Amino acid sequence: MMRFNLKMLAWFLGVLILAMALAACGGKTATEEPARPSNPGGTGEAVNLKGDPVKGAEIFEANCVSCHGEEGKGGVANPGSEDGEVPALNPIDPTLVSQDAQTFASNIDLFLEHGSTPAGNSPALSMPKFGDDKMLQPQEIADVIAYVIQLNQK
Ligand code: HEC
């Protein structure tokens, strides 16, 4: 009788642990929403254009490195922001990544079109609205998106 109870207990605990592990994994993927910019708005024309990552690398060097670091590796201080640093783009926030290239590009494009102010009382650096302020043309935005995606596929 004693042995039977211990076996039952072990079996029950095993099932319980497995169920908890499955619930933890399932819950994570189901609730992890992609990061979105603080400024509203949809995707721009760039998402319908084919980007050239070689041209994108030059655009990145001229427009993005000062805040996101060489090859998007980050490490740039952002005093007054909750994170304390400008986010790295290599590796990029995993919630922006998608196996579907169109979804991945759209997630990045929203930040490029409309800009974003990071959380915190007075962030020194904010993501500029390259699209809305016409700082970059749609083709240039498509090119820099292609480059950022390439950085994350290495
Ligand atoms: C003046 C500084 C600055 C420049 C220049 C800049 N960014 Fe940003 N970028 C930021 C900040 C700050 C954030 C974080 C915004 C937030 O948390 O809401 C950000 C966020 C992003 C994000 C979202 C990443 C994430 O983890 O949420 C992407 C993608 C991005 N930038 C791409 C670019 C690209 C591409 C360029 C160049 C065309 C660029 N940025 C130029 C400051 C900058």
Overview of this structure, please?
The protein is mainly alpha-helical. It has two domains: 1-32; 35-151, Cytochrome c-like domain (Cytochrome Bc1 Complex, Chain D, domain 2, Orthogonal Bundle), CATH 1.10.760.10. It is 47% helix and 0% strand. It has five helices and no strands. Helix 2 crosses helix 5 and helix 4 crosses helix 5. It is elongated. The N and C termini lie far apart (59 Å). The structure holds heme C. Heme C binds at residues 35, 37-38, 63-64, 66-68, 78, 86-87, 89, 93, 108, 111-112, 116-118, 125-128, 130, 144, 148. Residues 35, 37-38, 63-64, 66-68, 78, 86-87, 89, 93, 108, 111-112, 116-118, 125-128, 130, 144, 148 line the site of heme C.
Element layout with pairings:
Layout: H1 2-31, H2 53-63, H3 65-68, H4 101-114, H5 138-151
Helix pairs in contact: 2-5, 4-5
Heme C binds at residues 35, 37-38, 63-64, 66-68, 78, 86-87, 89, 93, 108, 111-112, 116-118, 125-128, 130, 144, 148.
- The appropriate CATH architecture of the largest domain is Orthogonal Bundle
Number of strands: 0
* Alpha carbon gap, first and last residue: 59 Å
- Whole-number tally of structural domains: 2
Q: Note the beta-strand portion.
A: under 5%
Task: Specify the helix fraction band.
Answer: 40-55%
Order of helices and strands: HHHHH
CATH topology of the largest domain: Cytochrome Bc1 Complex, Chain D, domain 2
Q: What does the overall shape look like?
A: elongated
**What is the overall pLDDT average?**
92
